[in-house]
Design brief:
The chain is mainly α and 92 residues long. It has one helix spanning 4-88. Residues 28-81 form the Centromere/kinetochore protein zw10 N-terminal domain.
């Protein structure tokens, strides 16, 4: 059988351990919140820099597509014109 003093000391030890755990959990929670903030800031900054670049690249892509279509149309007209001219030439 344990003494009353031992029981009191063990009870106090449990309280201290629980308090220590609460303190650690609190510190970890604070640290997690700080890291969340850093991640949010980093992602936001990357996106803020990325978006104008993406928009500019999309605009350039659209211009290239339009130019490519115009070139293809012109090339087709030239081919049709050449085929029409070659059928009109007198046979030698």
């Amino acid at each position: 059988m344990t003494s009353h003093v031992t029981d009191v000391l063990l009870a106090n030890t449990d309280l201290l351990e629980n308090e220590d755990l609460r303190t650690r959990i609190g510190k970890l929670s604070t640290h997690i919140d700080e890291i969340k903030g850093e991640i949010y800031h980093a992602v936001h900054e990357k996106y803020a820099n990325y978006r104008p670049t993406r928009d500019s690249t999309q605009e350039l892509h659209n211009k290239v597509q339009t130019l490519s279509t115009e070139m293809q149309t012109l090339s087709n007209k030239i081919k049709v014109k050449q085929q029409g001219d070659s059928t009109m030439e007198p046979a030698v």
